[in-house]
Write the structure tokens for this entry.
Amino acid sequence: MTVELLKFLNNITGSYGLAIIALTVLVRLALWPLGVSQQRSMRAMQLLQPKMKLIQERYKSDPQTMQKKMMEFYKEHKFNPMAGCLPILIQMPIFILLYAALISPQFIAEAGNSDFLFIKRLDTTLRGSAGISYDGAFSVSSGDKFVVFKKVKAILDDKEINDVKLEKDALQVQGTIASGKPVEFKIKDMSFKSLSFDEVEKMTAAEVEIQDVKNREVENVRFERRGDMMIASIPTAEPQDQFHKDVLILVLLFAATMFATQKVMMATNKNVQQDPMQAQMQKMMGNIMPIFIIFMFVTVPIPAGVLLYLVISNIFQIIQTVMINRQLQIEEDKKTIYHETKPKE
């Protein structure tokens, strides 16, 4: 579903990079009301912090009574302490779906080699195995998975048929995968679903583009008939690790925009009374979190397209934070003016 949505947005924007940006904007606009709720909750918590601290101090020796009084306090002020977490929780499944989409064989086959600005491939991770496509050999390691890429050609006794459709999961690996040892493939002849029974019987060979999902290498593999199976064998070589500087730039951009987001949120709330310990914690998190994120993205293979989504999402968050806090400040100023000018009874 996510891949289809990206294809749809690509048809509109003309670029898969712009499609990811458009998807990011659509998601953030859909979550805008929750963003307003989150920032209202944060400001309310900061404004109510002194009173909450008094309750905690008064009943610190009686945790059950303190919890009861805190719940009454939340209810009285219509405050939900969990409201600030909801937008983050909702975005996690979206992040997972996008991650799954950009590493899926469908996206890799459709647009994995798409470039955008300085990004060479949207499916590239920070470190990956480099393989040269269409050189007659796969660069493999144990555990590699293979999928049918795009072109499938059936070779019959009297003709050739292009753009043949295969059943899902028709491609199978025979034996184990090890570099230096030929990898063997097999496809049942009846898996060529767009061929008629008569054409299947006349088929003597097939040429199938196959991709190694791990390193995105593609080879055109020739299959020969053996009984009711089409079989093929292709040489393999040791993969070479490659470091992608364009993805590192995205990681650093994400860390920078996340750091900026924390700074903007702290700046917009600087006039709000806040517990000193809470303020110190926020400052520490703002400084440590980008470093932690960089470490995580260096060790976890995150595709460039997902990082692009996160960078644009952070930029959107900065704009959203400024706009919403400005509106909330206007509302609070109006309330203050109203109470100051309201005639006393």
